[in-house]
Write a structure and sequence with these properties.
The protein has about 475 residues and is an alpha/beta fold. The protein has helices at about 5-15, 40-55, 65-70, 70-85, 105-115, 125-135, 155, 165-175, 190-200, 220-225, 245-270, 290-295, 325-340, 355-365, 405-420, 435-440, 455-460, 470-475, and strands at about 20, 60, 90-95, 120, 140-145, 180-185, 205-210, 235, 300-305, 310-315, 345-350, 370-375, 385, 395-405, 420-430, 445-450. It catalyses: orotidine 5'-phosphate + H(+) = UMP + CO2; orotidine 5'-phosphate + diphosphate = orotate + 5-phospho-alpha-D-ribose 1-diphosphate.
Length: about 475
């Protein structure tokens, strides 16, 4: 199970956004656990914390530094602590790892040997540092983008408060991994810092820190930190609460308080639109946010564009850009997946060249084999028309990006059929409409589309991204 699913399952099951720091800090250890052997005392305390909180939290977060400070016995204590955590509860190792040279071996150790589900990383060395951790598709990383200690302000607020470094970290890290694999760690006592980060990264899980400092406002933290579904924000259990002999009772009370504020916040937020105040969220298109993101990153442009067919359209759609934007690419794949998973087939086939990345990502998601028909047959080597392994008689679903005339996708499907494969379904991301699906059906294919051009133009017009003149030009097509 991937980290995000495991986390969401526990949030739902325990009705909790709380996570617990499992930190063997001798200075915080209650006196009742005093022992001649400090490791024994810490172990008893950690066992108590796990037993008292397992039914009321969504995750545990052991801090590696506390265990390292205790030497070899501390690392042995870490192993025992990890083993004591119920297997269904995700573990986020707070490592703040930042060394580029040891990233690969450290990722292997924490994910395959220690069995943790996620890790915190420092962003300063960039994507090169994070990449070795992202090769584990069922794991996740949290990028540290903000801390609350006063000494960090000069760096994190640089060069100006209007355009601070911590927001640049958020913006850049969004390109390193999908929302399922990459979250953000935000330590702050200022709810407005959290609000700015949520605005830049509405799709990311945020692990909050330092929110219980004097003057903190839980209602405001939840208001600005939760995503539109009322999730996406992990709240720490106050460290001093973990010393309480009545921990179970106190954490349940805290959970209830958070959930009450969360419910009120959600009711308030639901009365207005996320994007523009004149957009009704009640009748909002299910892919509303994705459509706007595609427009904002110039995958959808307006003007007079000559298409491959020679026709001139008042718009141009370039889905090749999505491969450079992981969070958008991830949402596009989800759109395809919702259609393809309900079809019967043996293999997926992408049409060169635009849909090959999409078909590859979809094949990985669905754990199914992929092939593709060549655009041209090489004059050397095997001279194969179809790349990949297959057996005649198998059923293939064809994946393409946009359906304008249907010519290229049917040519690809015909190549597959000439090799003895069966093609019944063609799935595209955008259908230009104009009766192209009927044309496919007349040639023996069922056409499916994640979106139609009329749905896209309607959302863009409703959200104010295009004006009345552009909307009328598009709908006149």
């Amino acid at each position: 199970m991937i980290f995000s699913d495991k986390l969401n399952q526990n949030i739902s099951q325990n009705q909790s956004l709380l996570f617990v720091g499992l930190d063997p800090n001798p200075e915080m250890m209650p006196g009742r656990y005093s022992s001649e052997d400090i490791i024994d005392g810490l172990w008893d305390w950690l066992q108590f914390i796990i037993a008292e909180t397992a039914d009321f939290v969504c995750a545990y977060k052991p801090t590696l530094g506390f265990y390292e400070a205790l030497g070899i016995p501390g690392l042995q204590l870490l192993q025992k602590t990890l083993a004591a955590i119920p297997s269904h509860i995700p573990i986020i190792l707070d490592a703040k790892h930042s060394d580029l040279n040891t990233s690969t071996i450290f990722a292997k150790t924490v994910f395959t040997q220690w069995g943790v589900d996620a890790i915190t990383l420092s962003p300063y060395t960039g994507q090169d540092h994070v990449a070795p951790f992202l090769v584990y598709p069922d794991k996740a990383v949290f990028i540290l983008c903000s801390t609350s200690n006063p000494g960090a302000e000069a760096l994190q607020q640089y060069p100006t408060r209007e355009s601070p470094l911590y927001l640049q970290v958020v913006q850049e890290s969004k390109n390193w991994g999908t929302p399922e694999q990459l979250g953000l760690e935000v330590g702050t006592t200022d709810a407005e810092v959290l609000a700015r980060i949520r605005q830049v990264a509405p799709e990311r899980i945020i692990m909050a820190r330092s929110i219980w400092a004097e003057g903190g406002n839980l209602s405001r933290i939840l208001e600005v930190g939760l995503n539109t579904d009322g999730n996406g924000l992990l709240i720490p259990v106050p460290q001093d609460m973990l010393a309480s002999a009545n921990l179970s009772h106190e954490i349940q009370s805290l959970r209830s308080e958070i959930n009450q504020v969360r419910d009120i916040t959600l009711r308030d937020v639901s009365s207005c639109s996320v994007w523009l105040p004149d957009v009704s969220t009640v009748k909002q298109h299910p892919l509303h946010d994705l459509i706007l993101q595609l427009y904002d990153i110039d995958c959808i442009m307006f003007g007079n564009f000559v298409q491959a067919s020679g026709a001139v359209f008042p718009y141009y759609i370039d889905l090749r850009k999505i491969i450079s934007n992981p969070q958008v690419f991830n949402q596009v794949l989800s759109g395809y997946e919702n259609i393809v998973k309900n079809l019967t087939f043996d293999r997926l086939a992408g049409i060169p060249y635009g849909s090959l990345p999409t078909a590859t990502g979809l094949a990985l998601r669905l754990n199914c084999p992929m092939i593709f028909p060549r655009k041209e047959v090489k004059a050397h080597g095997t001279r194969r028309l179809i790349e990949g392994n297959f057996h005649p008689g198998e059923v293939v679903v064809v994946v393409d990006d946009i359906l304008i005339s249907g010519k290229s996708v049917m040519e690809g499907a015909d190549k597959l059929k000439s090799a003895g494969l069966n093609v019944h379904d063609i799935v595209v991301f955008i259908d230009h409409e104009q009766g192209v699906k009927d044309k496919l059906q007349a040639n023996g294919y069922r056409g499916h589309a994640v979106l139609t051009i009329s749905e896209i133009t309607s959302v863009l017009h409703q959200a104010g991204r295009i004006n009345d003149e552009q909307f009328l030009a598009l709908t006149a097509e």
